[in-house]
Amino acid sequence: MSTVVKTVNLVKIYQDGAVPVPAVRGVDLHVEPGEFVAIMGPSGSGKSTLVHMLGGLDTRTSGEIWLDGKRVDTLSESAWALLRRNRIGFVFQFFNLVANMTVGDNVELPALLAGASPKVARERRESLLAALNLTDRAGAAPAQLSGGEQQRVALARALANEPSLLLADEPTGNLDSRNTRDVLRLLSEVHKEGQTIVMVTHDARVASLADRLVSLFDGEIVDDGRIARRRTRTAGEVIDLR
Amino acid sequence: MRPHLLALLAKEPAHGYELKQALEQTFGSAYPSPNIGQIYVTLGRLEKDGLIRAVDVEQSNRPNKKVYYLTAKGRDVLEAWVDEPTEGPRVRDEFFMKLVLAPLTGIADRMALISRQRRHYLSLMGDLNDLMSRTAPTDRVAMLLIEGAMLHLQADLDWLERCQEDLA
Q1: Same domain membership, residue B72 and residue B107
Q2: Distance (Å, rounded) from C-alpha B168 to C-alpha B165?
Q3: Cα separation of B11 and B128, whole Å?
Q4: Where are the beta strands (DSSP E) in A32-158?
Q5: Nearest-CA distance from A120 to chain B in Å?
Q6: Which domain holds residue B32?
Q7: How does pLDDT run across B118-141, given as a tens digit for each residue?
Q8: Which residues contact B71 (CB under 8 A, 6 or more apart)?
Q9: pLDDT in tens, A13-53
Q10: Which of A2, A39, A55, A185 has its Cβ near the most Cβ atoms within 10 Å?
C-alpha cells in the first residue's frame, strides 16, 4: 500500500489587505496507511490550515499534496468534491450536519454517495450509531440534539463511507467527558481496524490515542515523533496526584 | 498516610491488614496500593504519638492480632486535618526549572525540551486512558481519581503550549 498522505514543501499564505500572512511554511508530511497522527501546537501555528488543505477545503499557495499516491493539489473543485465523497471523512469542531435530514440519514447519505449498496449503507449507519450510543436518536432532526450528540453524529457521518483518510479538526471541542469517552472508544476501534487518521486537537485524551505526534509552530513542523506506550506498568504507579 | 488511617479508624477499629484492604477497596486500582509494612510502621508511630491505641485480640491457632482504635487526641488531629484547606496546585515545577535553566548552559534548546515533554505527557495520558478503560464505570471513586489525573495532565499540556508561545 502506498503512503496515504504526502506533502512536499507545502505553503499557505493568506493575504490580509496588503500584508501577506504565512500560515503554513514549507511542511513535508508523510502519513502511512493505518497511522493515527495527532497534530498539536499553539493557536495560529497553522494546524487547521494544514488539515483543511489536505481535505481540499482550502487551496495551497505552493507545494504539492498527494493522496493515495495521486497528486491532488492541482485538482479542480469538482474533482476534489468527488475525492472527498469517496476517500475522505471530515469532522470539524462545528459539525455541519444537514439540518432537514434525520440523524440516521445524515450518517447514511455519505455511504450511498460513495457508492455503497442501500443494504450496506444501512448496516454501516446502524453499527456507527450503536457504537456512539445514538441508536434512539436516529429519527431525530440534528437541531433536537445536544452539542455533544451532534458532534458524535458528525463523527459517524465522517466514517460512513469508510474513507481511506479521516481528517478531524478539534473533534471533541464540544464534548463533556462522558461523550468524549464514546468518541475515544470509536476512534480507537476504527484505528485498530486500520483507519488512517490525521487529527488536530488540544484534547490530550484524544491525542494520546495517536501513534505519532506532529507539533507545529509558526507554520512549521518542529517535532515529529512516536508517542511511547508502556503497557507493562501496574495501575498503582500511574497516578500520583500532586 | 497518617490522616488516611486515622479517618478509617474513626469509622471503626481495625487491624493493619483490614486498613490496607479498606484503602484498596475505596480507591480502586487507580490508587497506589499501600505496602503492608508501611502501614504497620505508620500505625506504630501513631500509637507512639498517642493518636491511636491497640488492643490484643486472641485468635485460635494464630498469634494475637492487634486491633487499633482512635483516641480523643487522634480525633482532634483528624478533625484539624479535615478542617484545614488543602495545598493548592504546585508552583515549583521540575520541568519548568529545566526549561528555564538548561538553555542558559547551552545543554539543550527550549523547543526540543518542550516537544519531548509534550510527547511524554501524551504517553502518560495513554496510560490513564488504558486504566480508565479497565476500571468499572460504577467505581465512582476510582473513576474520579483517574479523571482528576487527566485534568491535571491536560492543564500541564496547556501550560506547555503557553511556555512554547512565550519562551521558545
Answers
A1: no
A2: 6
A3: 31
A4: 36-40, 62-67, 70-71, 88-91
A5: 30
A6: 2-83
A7: 999 999 999 999 888 888 888 889
A8: B50, B51, B52, B53
A9: 998 888 899 999 999 999 999 999 999 999 889 999 999 99
A10: A39
Asked if residue B88 is part of any domain, the answer here is: no
A contacts of B127 (beta carbons < 8 Å): 230, 233, 238
Superfamily holding A33-57+77-228: P-loop containing nucleotide triphosphate hydrolases (3.40.50.300)
CA dihedral over A135, A139, A144, A150, signed as positive or negative: positive
| Spatial strand order in the sheet of A5-16 | A19-31, A5-16, A62-67, A70-71
CATH code: domain of residue B37:
1.10.10.10
pLDDT of res. A242: 45
Say if strands B52-59 and B62-70 run parallel, antiparallel, or are unpaired. Answer: antiparallel
Read off the pLDDT band of B107 (50, 70, 90).
confident
Q: Compute the C-alpha angle B3/B7/B13, nearest 5°.
A: 120
8-state DSSP, B14: B
B136 within domain boundaries:
yes
Would you call B118 and A237 a contact, using CB atoms and an 8 Å cutoff?
no
Residue B89 maps to a domain: no
Task: Tell me the domain boundaries of chain A.
Answer: 33-57+77-228
ipTM for the predicted complex comes to 0.83
Among partner residues B30, B134, B153, which is closest to A204 by beta-carbon distance?
A: B153
Q: How many domains does chain B have?
A: 2
- The answer to whether the beta carbons of residues A71 and A65 sit under 8 Å apart is yes
Which residues of A are less than 8 Å from B123 in CB distance? Answer: 208, 227-230
CA B23 to the chain's CA centroid: 11
Task: Give which of A36, A178, A199, A239 to mutate to test B binding, by max B Cβ within 10 Å.
Answer: A239
For B32-43, the pLDDT digits (tens) are: 778 899 999 999
Higher pLDDT, B47 or B105: B47
pLDDT, tens only, A94-130: 767 888 999 999 999 989 988 899 999 999 999 999 9
Write out chain B residues lying below 8 Å of A240, CB-based.
Answer: 32
